[in-house]
What does this fold into?
Amino acid sequence: MEIVKAKVFGFCFGVRRAVEMIETELDNNAPLCTLGAIVHNTHVVEALASKGAKLVQSLDEVPPGGAVAITAHGAGEEVYADIRGRGLRLIDTTCSIVRRAQQTAAALVNDGFFVVLYGEAEHPEVKGILSWTRGQGVATQTSKIDVPPGVKGIAVIAQTTKNPKLFAEFAQQITKEQIGKVPEIRIIDTTCPETGRRYQAARELAQQVDSLIVVGSRSSANTRKLTETCRETGIPTYHIESAAEIEEAWLAGVNRFGVTAGASTPDDVIAEVVLRLRTYEGERTTKEGTEIV
Ligand code: SF4
It folds into this structure.
């Protein structure tokens, strides 16, 4: 049996940078608190916790004078002000693509626009971006919106992990409904190409294999979407969090097993999965999948 890995999988640059920043801080100044999970992966969170990174949900839990990390998902303007006000040391791991979405939202509001953010209202990244609109925005996944009077127009942006195709459809629908009602409509695609590259690579991988394993936390939205993408191809797909979940029976009749992983899955967890498959089957060939750009 061959094990074929997707060409693009696992940690995106934003998550890798965030984890590396925390590890560097822990090496130099442990301990610290992270405001929310630094990445939606229990292995990473536990590994960082063992080195002194305490997961907190509120700044009230951070000891006076302590250090606190904002995650790659970013945070709202008021969170920065609160950290400053409390005199805490800030480690800001906000991903550059999320930061750009926040800055875009703030600039649009400054320019007189009402921001329509296509995204999951309860997601930490969405809450953070929306905060930068200072009340002049809404997070929604439906095109029915109430636009306040007196604005220059509406500006449609997206949660970074949204599918660009779905965002385009959403923007088209909202344009249809708002044209003639507001003076101007602007559409700015703030989606991140990293997740899309993983979905595309997974589809390509599915064409080469008999069965697929997706590695990643069940709490990770992008890993769940990656699993859905794989299942939509019709290829039998297993979503696992670690190598321990693999059952030997899955290998029966499979000549080529594909392995991919969400943007929050660390390299060592993926390596253990490949090792476990090899152990079950006996050492065979591992080769790279097709390059996707
Ligand atoms: S998926 Fe994109 S936006 Fe999100 S952390 Fe990774 S690189 Fe940044």
